[in-house]
Amino acid sequence: MRIGVLSDTHDRLPAIDRALDLFRQRGVEAVIHPGDLVAPFAARRLLAWTGPLYVTYGNNDGEREGLKRILPQIQDGPLWIEAGGKHILVHHYADWCTPQDLDRADIVITGHTHEIVNERRGGKLFLNPGECCGWLSGICTVAILETNSLSAEMIEVTP
Fold this sequence. Notes:
It contains four helices and ten strands, in the order E-H-E-H-E-H-E-E-H-E-E-E-E-E. The protein is of the alpha/beta class. It has a single domain (2-157), classed as Metallo-dependent phosphatases (Purple Acid Phosphatase, chain A, domain 2).
């Protein structure tokens, strides 16, 4: 299964739009956002995605009630997804994952640091797509996760 992952969008609307366009072009079947959308007006952009959409709160998502009105499925992590025969753990920050949750997961998807992580450890894939907003690094990145091969491609998007 092919899953699009974007994180830390921090209200950068053109980057969100570009990421979703890219996911459509690349045949992505579902989208995961592990937090820091920030405002409800940014969350509305995710409604353009017509497939499964999984979202967790991040530490900068202060308007939780407004976000919940737009995206009723948003929740605090850990969020568990079973897709492509894999157990996917989604949480905004890796340090918030318990050892028990890490043991259960085949794939661990986080955000928060704005830094790309795409590595295997102990047979698990740890994935942080970096920052879709590009506010810190100047580079907007997303990932396309392939559950079958337990791998991800990091892609720069131009807002």
